[in-house]
Amino acid sequence: MSIAGEPSFRESVDMMFKRATQLMDLGPGLEEKIRVCNSTYTVRFGVRLRGKIETFVGYRSVHSEHMEPVKGGIRYSLGVNQDEVEALAALMTYKCALVETPFGGSKGGLCIDPRKWDEHELEQITRRFAYELIKRDLINPAQNVPAPDMGTGEREMAWIADQYARMNTTDINAKACVTGKPPHAGGIQGRVEATGRGVQYALREFFRHGEDAAKAGLSGDLDGKRVIVQGLGNVGYHAAKFLAEEDGAKVIAIIERDGALVNDSGLDVEDVRQWMNRHGGLLAEYPKGQHIIDGAKALELPCDILIPAAMEGVINLSNAERIQAPLIIEAANGPITFGADEILRRKGCVIIPDMYANAGGVTVSYFEWVKNLSHIRFGRMQRRAEEARSRLLVEELERLSSDQHLGWQLGPDFKQKFLQGSDELALVRSGLDDTMRTAYQSMREVWHARQEVQDLRVAAYIVSIGRIAKTYQSKGL
Ligand code: GLU
Asked: Lesser CB count within 10 Å: N end or C end of the chain?
């Protein structure tokens, strides 16, 4: 999206990058080397559909190969262009470094309206796009590993994995060529919910630090916090659902393509999503809330937490001044433009930046990639051993209690939970939670330690660029 008077998305990311590097002491030339995008491959290919040849334009941009493989999703949208994929690839580099997933940054996109084509047609298009990228090693388990992004999901990833396997019949690690696959095709439990889950874990960690919440004029935990979410796609839906159902937050507005739904006493996220599934993705007639046609207006309503989870540039120079949320968590990539970021900071708004906030997706992608390379499900070896040890302890406690007539009784709920070994989903959630906590702490340390670091975004860039710089230095560059 290009907004009047604003830099492009890629320029906006570069400007945010430079705000951070001004405060860093990088060797001569290193700042430039880290910032620039290494390469962008553009492909135009034809697919025979509905009796004629349709030509599609696709991109795969590699921002940084300081670590390989490079990682990042493939987006299907009519808004896809070179500037956008390059901005998104850069964000992937910084994101991966911040959450310590051992990847460089990449991104891909296909200029297409996925709703225009049926499943069989989309499969033909996807396989053809994948073919073009695979033959140039732009999809490869050791070099470049895509994942879902806006407009793509498990289905497309399964097609890509299959296409790669067909073209590389002896590659034993073929499944690791793409992540976000369905579990039956080599995926991992918890990948679909991962980005939304990561947003929840990020907010929980934020509120664990009263001092940080106080900077946004907030206190306590997530219970009762009034939330506005923009975009009820995969990320927004899971984030809003978990926050409401598990943390007691109140979702007072949901913004979608056809306007916003508002209900001050809280919306039932699952119910809204079910409604949208039944009504072609539309909210308008939903009975348990007020519908506002100009959805963007709902971004400006008073609330505690605003979650833009749709696309880039939605908070920009035209509306930033009117945003009332004291805390914004960027579940989408680049939802706040450089200019809007300045305005919001001046107003005292705390922003939990995209490269951290939505890193749950790539974190669980990392687990999936490791699973594919190790050819074994997480927990398969340990789970029952863990259960056997817990059972030993429970039985010993019960024996002691009865031998010594102590009358101890372990609660049935405790016993059931304690005796359960960790399966793959539990391990994925544990790894994700740990990642989100650790990354937040590394950001806040810089935020609080250095007076000139005034916000979490600059702190995030400093941590991330610092790590990338170290990798370059140890490579002798
Ligand atoms: N597309 C997601 C992102 O922007 C996930 C990338 C991945 O898992 O590689 O972070």
From this structure: C
